[in-house]
């Protein structure tokens, strides 16, 4: 994988959505969909949990490719991750992930 840290700071190699895709694990897809629906305050269906990582040409979850405000923002600014943004620490959009994942926050801080 060319860049294992997603725009939001999650490590794609550790991401359960990617693991569910690689292992074709429908139970894990259900778990991820439920959790991500809660975190992002929108419906995310298990059938949408197919992802090979945030960067690169492989498949992405429906949420990540179509709805993720973090990914859209970073791409619009030409950033590889939110660590490149001067507003990262105060970003309400990024908090959708960093409020629930200390490792994502740590990954971004390590990239600064």
Can you characterise this structure?
There is one protein chain. The chain is mainly α and 112 residues long. The chain has one domain (12-111). The chain is built from 6 helices and no strands. The protein has helices at 16-23, 26-40, 62-67, 69-76, 95-98, 102-111. Helix 1 runs antiparallel to helix 2 (26-40).
What integer value in Å does the Rg equal? 13 Å
Major β-sheet, in short? Answer: none
Ends distance: 21 Å
Low-confidence stretches: none
Task: Give the CA-based shape.
Answer: globular
How many structural units, i.e. domains? 1
Mean pLDDT: 89
Approximately what portion of the residues adopt beta-strand conformation? under 5%
**How many β strands by DSSP?**
0
Q: Tell me the helix content.
A: 40-55%
Number of DSSP helical runs: 6
Q: What class, by secondary structure content?
A: mainly alpha
Order of helices and strands: HHHHHH
Question: Topology, please?
Answer:
Layout: H1 16-23, H2 26-40, H3 62-67, H4 69-76, H5 95-98, H6 102-111
How would you describe this structure in keywords?
112 residues; mainly alpha; 6 helices; 46% helix; globular
In brief:
The protein has 112 residues and is mainly α. It has helices at residues 16-23, 26-40, 62-67, 69-76, 95-98, 102-111.
